[in-house]
Amino acid sequence: MKSWQSRINGLALASALAPALYGHALAQRKPSFDCGKAASMAEKAICADPALAQTDADIAAKYAAALKTLDARAGKALRDDQSDFVSYRDHIAEFNQGIPKDQQTTDLGEFMRDRATYLAGIRKPADKGFIGTWSSIRGTVEIKSAGGGKLDVSEDIANPVSGSGACDIGGTVKAGKELRLVDTDDQDKATGFVFAFRRDGDALVVEQSGAGKDGASEPPSCGANGHVDGAFFLNEKQ
Predict the structure, then answer these.
(1) Which residue has the higher pLDDT, 72 or 4?
(2) How large is the average pLDDT for residues 41-45?
């Protein structure tokens, strides 16, 4: 049995550690920005919710780590992707204003946690090849070996908040320094659009060119205002 003195010493140690532990917990909840200057609806929501503040801090830390992992060109593309994330995040907070949580179509906390997970999964490519899962805030490009010097390519993207501007394309292409996918319709006839996939440093860049029949501005595989253009980053699901 412990002596009274040892119990007293233990209580004294616990009392001494409590403020430090409590202070550490508060530090963990501090977001990546100054709450005194919070301007957007999202920033105010983050400052008012310790869980959101913690997630915001996680996003900032994982974003900084990803930037250190990637080369300068991919880093610039990731900065643009992060800017898009912030814009979508702010829209979600505005959409949710005054709406009960059980009636909200998009949960701000879940959207932010998904972003933290995504950033943690970004990897620096081991070579200049194409095979792998490449992702951005708008969606994913999947490239697999099809054998015989060919690759299977698919891209599935959309506005992550509204679901608009969706595109779902895919096909088998010849491997090379640039991958060119000719868009075809249900009858396997060319639609006039061509999708090019190329490496730009550590990023994968997709570019859409051509014009559709009858003045169509989007490929048949895309919704209104849909386009496949963008930069994507090698990503491992966490």
Answers:
(1) 72
(2) 95
